[in-house]
Amino acid sequence: MAAATFQELLSNTMFQYFLVFVFTAFGVVFVILNVDVLGKLLFRPVMPDPLKLTTYECGEPTIGSSWVQFDIRFYTVALIFIVFDVEVVFLFPWAAVFAKLGAPAFTKVMIFVGVLAVGFINAWKKGDLDWVTSIAAHDLAAQKDARLARARQRALETEERRAA
Amino acid sequence: MLLEATEAAHSATQAVLGLPRGPYFKMAEEIGGHTLGYFMPELIVCFTLCLMLLVDVSDKLRSPRNLLSLAFVGMLAPLLLILGKWGTALFIYPDWGNLAQAAHFFKDHGYVEVAGASMLAFDGFANFFKIFALASGLITLAMLHYDRSLPRKSFGEMLTLVLGSVLGMMLLASSTNLLMAYLSIELMSLASFVLVAFKRSDRKGTEGALKYMLFGAVSSGVMIYGISLLYGMAGTLDIALMGQRLRDVNDPLAIGLALLMVTVGFGYKMSIAPAHFWAPDAYEGAPTPVTAFLSVASKAAGFAGFIRFMDAMAFQSTGNALPIINWVSFVAVLGALTMTIGNLTALWQRNAKRMLAYSSIAHAGYLLIGVAAVAVGGELGGDSGRAIADMGASATAFYMIAYCIMNFGAFAVVMAVAHETGSEEMSAFDGLAKRNMGLAVMMTILLLSLVGIPPTFGFLGKMNLFIAGLEAAQAGYPIMAVLLVVAAVNTAISCYYYFRFLRAMFIAPGEPALVSRPLIVSNTGWLLVGGSALLTVGLFLWGSLFTAPTDEATMLRRTPAPAAAEAQDASKGHAGHGH
């Protein structure tokens, strides 16, 4: 009788959710209890010093803050990487059965690679892959900005002088 | 019904032109699985997109003019292709009933399935929204050409993104599979995020794009979670099959939650409350052509996806003891909420683009009247239910056309004014009538249309929506009547902020130094503004004068065209209800 009721309980959707809840709650309590309460009391004395409180970076001493500006160019490179990463994911299964599928599959994959190649050519020609030239272009733009600012300043000064 | 009408129309044209006769709609099996031809419009857009990327990096070829022509051809060709194959009915029976009916429902039409995967349907409904997306894309091209504030250097990228977005919309209109729908939404969203932030140095644009993207990420995350729940319960991603299988799943809570989650994803694209928060910022910050594109095409695609989804899910609640989700009340409440929030917030705006953004939210609310009517029809089932569902879908599609024309026109006026004054604030419109009477008059027509006042197409559109809503209310759904009352009150409210433009243009004195200088509009500007204003009035006249009132006293034709009537009689026996 009792076993039958338990079987019924098990097949109840809400009860299954309840089990998941119990499991989660148990996990959370277990970790907090062991690490923060028991651990602190029994095994892990809390004795901080400045060195201990620093961020661990593979044994290297920490330099500066971790809140640094990231170069946007990493983003482009990451995007291009993902595109080709995904391409490989698609090419592997095709390559495994290539001999069996023959020409039609080959054509389709070539169309796929072709579309990716178009994107790659575009990115290449637009200079997204030239790490160093981009810096040069950046410097040039900065110089131009500075020149413009100086010219504007001079114009302002001239106007002021004229007004005086 | 449309199936037969279109077939008859098609064979009639073919007879006239001396072409071989034959029905147009076929199932995939009938044509031996060779379905790639149906996919040609999308393929052309794809191909143009790739070509554009290559032309854009060629120093010789990449002039804005070349790129623009390429994009123009790339969208016009598929448009003509779809129109030529499917739209013959439009030209043979050029009355509104038929146009609206051509946008008609997919229920009894033959689905043409691609390679047995049944990912896409090429039915009247999909074709209508594809034409819509392509036409909006073409108008957007004209607006991009007109917008002088855009960086010409990256014109190619911009056009590529517009093409990508249009492609996503076309696919979404066709998707009969939730995964396909999801991917299409992503395709159009990703392109539009970038489009919004296109002026990289513009802080407002960047802010708008960021909000748009964060909102998009969250809602598409919620949506795919809902899809995964539905997949878990139904074991399929095919929308129609899912609707059938969910009937047997006795877990209303889980199904309701999952359907709600998927609705969030579509609701975000439709910018309906409470998923509308991204819209004002993105619309204000984006370059004006992009704003117009998003507020028309992107919204329409969202509606297309949602109607297809809801249609499958609403019909399955009929035979079920446990109503899974009460779509009628749900959509009606969303509609009332959306139009009220949109209109009330628009009252306080000082920026013309932001005001039009809120107005576009309000219009999404009006469109939901039609969607709610589709839901009513779905719940009723049977012939009368089908009639109401068709009416709702047709009215939605019909209003979409009106909305497309008037909204693009209004944004073009904002652009024309911004070109000369450098400002998109309401104050830039002060004394516009003295600077350029023609522009002010055109704007007046467009605004009247946006409110829904008679000599304009917007009136016809709104009337159709109200008729569909009224039919639904009479079928025993009082909540539809409430929705209509809310819509009527909202229309009155909307007068206030639309007429603020009128006050600014005709009554406000404006800055003397500015007012004395005439405002010059280029040819493209006149084409956009004048074209949309003329269409707004012209289509109204055409629609109201040349359409014979039908026996049901509606603007919608409910009886098939004469030639089609025979065809319909002949096939009445096996043209049963889809489900």
Radius of gyration of chain A: 32 Å
- Helix proportion range of chain B: over 70%
Largest sheet of chain A: none
- Average of the residue pLDDT scores of chain B: 79
Given the C-alpha coordinates, what overall shape of chain B results? Answer: globular
Strand content bin of chain B: under 5%
Q: Distance N terminus to C terminus of chain A?
A: 106 Å
Helicity range of chain A: over 70%
Radius of gyration of chain B: 23 Å
Looking at how many chains there are and whether they match, the oligomeric state comes to heterodimer
Order of helices and strands of chain A: HHHHHHH
**pLDDT < 50 runs, ≥5 residues of chain B:** 1-33, 88-117, 316-322, 548-579
Task: List SSEs of chain B in N-to-C order.
Answer: HHHHHHHHHHHHHHHHHHHHHHH
**Most residues in contact, chain pair and counts:** A-B, 8 and 6 residues
What's the total count of β strands of chain B?
0
Q: Please report the number of helical segments of chain B.
A: 23
Give the amount of beta strand of chain A, in percent: under 5%
Shape of chain A: flat
Alpha-carbon distance between the two ends of chain B? 16 Å
Structural class of chain B: mainly alpha
Can you walk through the features of this model?
The complex is a heterodimer of chains A (164) and B (579). Chain A has helices spanning 2-11, 13-42, 50-53, 73-96, 98-101, 103-125, 131-163. Chain A has 164 residues and is an all-alpha fold. Chain A folds into two domains: 2-53; 73-163, no CATH class. In chain A, helix 4 (73-96) runs antiparallel to helix 6 (103-125). Chain B is built from 23 helices and no strands. In chain B, helix 8 packs antiparallel against helix 13 (288-315). Chain B is globular and about 70 Å long. The model of chain B is unreliable at 1-33, 88-117, 316-322 and 548-579 (pLDDT under 50). The A-B interface holds A 13, 115, 118-119, 121-122, 125-126 and B 50, 53-54, 56-57, 251.
Q: Which keywords apply here?
A:
heterodimer; A: 164 residues; mainly alpha; 2 domains; 78% helix; B: 579 residues; 23 helices; 0% strand; disordered N terminus; disordered C terminus
